Amino acid sequence: MLKFLNRFSQALDQAVVSGARSSARRFGRRSALARLGGFLVGGAVASALPFDRAFGAETKKAGPDDDTSCDYWRYCALDGRLCTTAGGSKSSCPVGSEASLVSWVGTCHNPADKRDYLVSYYDCCGKTGYSGATFCLRSKGERPGYSMGLHNDINWCMSNANKGYHCTVAIVLGTA
Ligand code: ABN
Fold this sequence. Notes:
By secondary structure, the chain is α+β, with helices and mostly antiparallel strands. The protein has a domain at 73-175: Sandwich (Electron Transport Ethylamine Dehydrogenase). The chain has two helices and six strands, in the order H-H-E-E-E-E-E-E. The protein is elongated. The chain starts with a helix and ends with a strand. Bound molecules: benzylamine.
């Protein structure tokens, strides 16, 4: 009887020890750390994957309404870099540059109201250093370069003390 109780006690001990070990393996500190590590590494790898992060964000469509695109309606006779892509806006020069004293004028059609407008193109001068600016060459109404006033492939900054060309703005003067 004593022998039986001894064996029973040993078997019970073993069962408790192996249960505790298995539970430590499943829920122990090291296991928890290993799982957390896997989760963090997985998260880092997932965030580095090339997902389309702009999904759902408002994206501008290049065309007559987009003033950062050559197709913008006001740019119908613009030859140069867009100031909207060079630190300025469609009608103001970037800080550190100044508008040319002379300009080139074009007549552009605005599809939104179906009217024609006189648009004056000023070069922004005196600022150097730019990157990634969009260059456009649209020449509605341009004439061969024998006469400067009829040709738009001209650096209008030559009229200024500082002749370095930066970008071009488009100012609406009125309806044509
Ligand atoms: N009017 C823009 C421009 C500047 C330099 C050279 C050509 C055209």
